[in-house]
Every structure is written in structure tokens, then in C-alpha cells.
Amino acid sequence: MLSIPYVSRILDPEGIGKVSFIDSFTYYFVSIAEFGIMLYGIREVAKERGNHERLGQLVSELITLHVITSLCTMILYAVSVFILWNKIGDVRLIFFSVSFLVVNAFSCEWYFLGTEKFSFITLRILTARLLGLASIFLIIKRPDDYYIYYAIITASAILSHVWNIAILFREVRFSLRTVNWKRHLKFVWIIYLINLCYSVPLMLDNVVLRLVNTASAVGLYAFSVKVVRIGAALITDSFLVFFPRIVSLARDKHEHQLQQKLLLNIRLVILMSVPMGVGLWLVADKLTSVFFGSKFLQAAESLRLLAVYPFLKGFGLFLSNPVLIAHHKEKAYLRNLIAGVCLFIISAPFLGFYYSYSGACIALIFVEFVIVALNYLSAKKLLPDLRIFDSRTLLHALLGSSLFIPFIQFIKSEIISDFGKLVISLIGCSCIYMLFLFFVVKNNLARQVKYYLVDYFFKRTR
Q1: In whole angstroms, what is the distance from residue 149 CA to residue 80 CA?
Q2: Distance CA 44, CA 196 (A)
Q3: With contact defined as beta carbons under 8 Å apart, do 333 and 310 qualify?
Q4: How many whole angstroms separate alpha carbon 181 and alpha carbon 35?
Q5: C-beta of residue 323 within 8 angstroms of C-beta of residue 172
């Protein structure tokens, strides 16, 4: 996120468009090679974490399966590069793309999530991203350095994978003697199809837009969608933290604890995504001016169109992972995704061709809304006893966020820089929102967080 302002001022929209295209193109093949192992691996590791011998065999089998699927995917990748070469046109981008695909064959993030090693995951992510961020500031100097920008992106991802592999092989005994990777095929294929369908709007939006429009249009779309996806990731990453525990609670039929975890998840989604969306809508112009620079001022329109994305993505993933998939209702989620993907395939090229980056934003929001609606109906039908929404929390979030409007209008009337207005808006709205939740409506989750922080502070100062 911190690199966006700097990169947008050095690189032009066409260079950003080329990087966004190859990055989305590569990650879709990563999704193909992943073969549904990520979610399946988290679920199975969470079940076997107490049995070291069976866990070692599971890890060996899943890594072997991933290597095999990656080799097959590389063939499809080579054919696709040949067909789309006129849209790529830079062998350097292909080199970095292939390097990442090769290392990704040994991806094992599912092991660390399934064993709930969140402190290690946080350390690794922060280290890789900070090194990547420093490299961007030190190396990117000219518009022609777009390929170096992509090299840094892939190098950061490769560092994370290599670090994972080194720690995994130190903790788990890897053996090919009794590997029976075929036994997992009958379980992963549904999750695999889910992963492929899920990745279509997530990874191929830039690719589809580039096929029907210019690289500059992709550049304008890519930066704005990256902002809202980073915001959404702050919310949805909590699902990976809770997912192993929810799987265990669902398996052991601890209904009360399970319901409490699910309500905690959805309340976090609502309380974080609603103010995020309202804030994006209100400060889109200032955010674009400060972060993107004069070359990307048109991206403000995209940010406003995408303001509802964090809520839709957060609620949609909540309904899919902790609710449907954790309760082995993958087939229902798959049907919903297929419907969404069909709508995306129809709407994205059409709207992207006629309305450029704005059309791509509209198509993305439309598809996310449809998937959320279908997931909600499936969850209510298949799991009627689960409480999967909290309207009271939504009301609190909407009322608190509505207070941003007069505050930001007041800030706009002051004669200060765009950067100053953005910073004051961010700090002021955050304080207003938290004070409203703590002292006006006395939201339950906000009060729990307040008591936890106060208790933690007093323990640290004793």
C-alpha cells in the first residue's frame, strides 16, 4: 500500500497496466496449480495436528500433489503465453513470472495456517513486504523500470515461499516412500473448482479488461481495485485465523462456541467494512490525488464505484469459508460461484469495452453482490440453525459512519493541502466512529475490545 503513491508517480499507466496484466495472468495459473489444496490442507492439518506421524504423511502427500499439478499447469501456461504474446510483449516479465510459478510448486502456507502459527506468518509477511517496499523506493527510478517493479513483487513472494519451505522441512519429516497423493483427489476436486471459479473475477479482471481495452485503462483500474482489495484483505484475513478453530468446533459439535465464533466474525466484517466503504466514497478525490498523483486522477471515479467492495467481499467470504465450507457444504458454494463466474464472463468484457475501467468496476461489484445473495440463501437453507448476520451491528456501523459526512464537509471548507485533509479525515473519522461505538450505542464487540485493551495496558504498566 505504501509503495502505491511512489510507483504511480514514477511509472505511467501503460507500465502499470503491463505489470497488472502479467501479475493477474500469473496468479490465475497459480490458482490452477493450487488444485484446491489451500483450504483442504488447512482443514486436514487442523484435524491431524496432534498426530505428528500422520501429519508428516499428509504434508508429504499434499506437497507431492501440488508439484504434479504445477508441472501440468506449466504446459498450459506456455500455450497461453504463446497465444497472448502480443498482449505481453516483454520476455523479462515472463522470466519473473515463470520463476514465481516454479517456487510456488512447493507452497505450504496451508500447513502454518492449519497449525495456527500466526506469529510466524505475521513475521514472515512483514519481513518480505518491508524488504520489497525498501527495494521499490531504492531501485524504481524511471518509467521504463516497470519490469523491475514486477521483479520486486515476485522476489518478495518467492522469499515468503522459500522461508515457509525451510521451516516446514525442519518441523515435519518429508518422505516419498509411502506417499499416496491420489487418495486426496476425491476430496479436493470440489474445492479446486471453487478456487478456480473464485479466482476468475479476482485474478482475471485485469486480463479481461486488457483484452477489450487499452493498457492505460488497466492501469487506472488496477490501482483503484488494489486499494479496495487491500482494505478487504484486512477484514477477510481474520477468516483464516478462525477457520481451523471453527472446523474443530463444527466437527466436535460445540454448537454454542461455534455460534459465538461465527458472530464474532460477522460483527468484525460489518464494523470494519461499512466505515471503510463510506470513507472511501467520501475521500476518493483526495485519496487519488495524494496516493496516485495527477496521472491517475480519473481513478477517483473507480474508487467510488468500488466503495462497497470491502463489505461485499467480507460478507461473501464469511458465508463461504467459516459457514458453508467449514460445514462441508462445498457443493452449494460451488454452484453459487459458477453462477457468478458466468455473469462475470458476460458482463466484464461488454462493460469493459464500452465503459473502460468504470465498466470493469461495475461488473466486479455486480458479480460480488450476486455471489453474496446466493451464498446467503444457501446458508439459510442448508444451515437454518446458524445465526449468520447481526442487523443490530449493521445499524450501529451505518449510524456511526454517517457522522463522517458533516466532519469531512467541514474539512473540505478549510484551506489546507489534500494530504492534510486526507490525514485529518482519517484520524477524525476513526475517532468519531470509535467514540460512537464505545459511548453512544455501546456496541458489544467494541466494548469487549475496549475492556481487553484496558486490561492489557494495565498488565503491561504494572
Answers
A1: 23
A2: 20
A3: no
A4: 12
A5: no
Q: What is the DSSP letter of 9?
A: H
Please give the Cα distance from 327 to 167 (Å, whole number). Answer: 31
State in Å, rounded, how far the first CA of the chain is from the last one: 37
Place of cell 507500465: 15
Distance CA 82, CA 99 (A): 17
Which residues lie below 8 Å from residue 415, measured CB to CB, with a gap of 6+? Answer: none
Average of pLDDT values for 49-57? 80
CB 27 within 8 A of CB 195: no
HSE, CB side, 13 Å, CA atoms: give it for residue 378.
25
> How far is Cα 8 from Cα 162, in angstroms, rounded to an integer?
29
Name the residue type at position 74.
M
Q: Please tell me what DSSP assigns to residue 213.
A: S
Pairwise CA distance, residues 6 & 402, whole Å = 32
Q: What residues contact 156, with CB distance under 8 A and at least 6 apart?
A: 128, 129, 131, 132
Instruction: Extract the C-alpha cell encoding 306.
Output: 468500488
CA nearest neighbour of 395 among 437, 431, 448, 449: 437
Mean per-residue pLDDT of the chain: 84
Do the Cβ atoms of 348 and 363 come closer than 8 Å?
A: yes
Please write the tens of the pLDDT for every residue from 353-386. Answer: 999 889 999 999 999 999 999 999 999 999 998 9
Look at residue 396 and give its three-state secondary structure.
helix
| pLDDT score, position 382 | 93
- Helix, strand, coil distribution of the chain in percent, nearest 5: 85, 0, 15
CB 224 within 8 A of CB 299: yes
CA distance 390 to 378: 17
CA-CA-CA-CA dihedral for 78, 79, 81, 85, to nearest 10: 140
Which cell numbers hold the place of 188? Answer: 479436493
Query: H-helix or E-strand containing 322?
Result: none
pLDDT band at 313 (very low <50, low <70, confident <90, very high): very high
Task: Write out the DSSP string of 182-228.
Answer: GGGHHHHHHHHHHHHHHHHHHHSHHHHHHHHS-HHHHHHHHHHHHHH
